[in-house]
Amino acid sequence: MLTVESIDVAYGRAQVLFGLSLTVAPGSLTCVMGRNGVGKTTLLKAVMGVLPVRSGRVEFDGHDITRLKTYERVRLGLGYAPQGHDTFPQLTVWENLQVVLEASPKATKESVDEALDVFPALRGLLRNKAGFLSGGQQQQLSMARTLVTRPSMLLLDEPTEGIQPSVILEIEEAIERLHRETGVAVLLVEQYLDLALRLADNFVIMDAGEVVRSGGREDLQDPSVRQLLTV
Ligand SMILES: Nc1ncnc2c1ncn2[C@@H]1O[C@H](COP(=O)(O)OP(=O)(O)OP(=O)(O)O)[C@@H](O)[C@H]1O
């Protein structure tokens, strides 16, 4: 469903991704792991079209999306919850969802309801301003907002980053539930090996802008994998 073929991505003169390739199968959950600064966020931004690729190709659901605008990729079924959750802090939870409902052709009142079914804790907070929510609640809102567009594939950038341990489990359960119940494919950037071990069907490990290891969940137990993730 998603094929990234040998992409190079740079910030000005600083190249960050070097001929990176990966595939994500329909309905699967693939975890992208690797030390800080290896290019995980850059990869997601390139897939979403937030950053241009210098060379290589990105294909989604049979479409060559390499040069498409971000909104066109969203229309094709890609959803993106960026690092640091990125909600509108002055708007209420309901208004945050409504923005997407108004802006996305595929969004309907039912898709808002379905998103809230995945994150039921948000139902009691609909009138609260997003800026006053806890980090964990904002993260849930960010993921719910993305679900409103009815994606067939969701890119999640470190949803557990900076979240207190008691809430991490809640977020993990929500990702598991949304993956299982909606069948959406997930490309998840995640630092916690334990969480990846519980959630991932497949994984890739990046180092210095390249994929250096990939495999199925069972391969994550391998000591050489742990070594690639240790600072
Ligand atoms: N806007 C930018 N301009 C220049 N360099 C950048 C920019 N954003 C990121 N970089 C650099 O690109 C490299 C990869 O960054 P990226 O955020 O993709 O890594 P990451 O693996 O997601 O790291 P982390 O786990 O810390 O989020 C880093 O060396 C970073 O300093």
Please describe what this structure looks like.
Residues 2-231 form the ABC transporter domain. Belongs to the ABC transporter superfamily. This protein is α/β, with parallel strands linked by helices. The chain has one domain (2-229): Rossmann fold (3-Layer(aba) Sandwich). Helix content is 35%, strand content 26%. A hairpin with a 2-residue loop joins strand 9 and strand 10 (210-216). Helix 4 packs antiparallel against helix 5 (135-147). The longest helix has 18 residues, at 165-182. Adenosine-5'-triphosphate binds at residues 11, 14, 16, 34, 36-42. Adenosine-5'-triphosphate (ATP) binds at residues 11, 14, 16, 34, 36-42.
Q: How many E strands?
A: 10
**Structural class by helix and strand composition:** alpha/beta
What oligomeric state do these chains adopt? single chain
Q: Which small-molecule species are bound to the chains here?
A: adenosine-5'-triphosphate
Q: Helix coverage percent of residues?
A: 25-40%
Order of helices and strands: EEEHEEHEHHHEHEHEEH
Short description:
This is Urea ABC transporter ATP-binding subunit UrtE. The protein has 231 residues and is of the alpha/beta class. The protein has one domain: 3-Layer(aba) Sandwich (Rossmann fold), CATH 3.40.50.
Write the layout of secondary structure elements.
Elements: E1 2-11, E2 14-24, E3 29-33, H1 40-48, E4 55-60, E5 63-64, H2 70-76, E6 78-81, H3 93-103, H4 109-118, H5 135-147, E7 153-157, H6 165-182, E8 185-189, H7 193-199, E9 202-207, E10 210-216, H8 223-229
Parallel strand pairs: 3-8, 3-9, 6-7, 7-8
Antiparallel strand pairs: 1-2, 1-4, 4-5, 9-10
Helix pairs in contact: 3-5, 4-5
The structure holds adenosine-5'-triphosphate.
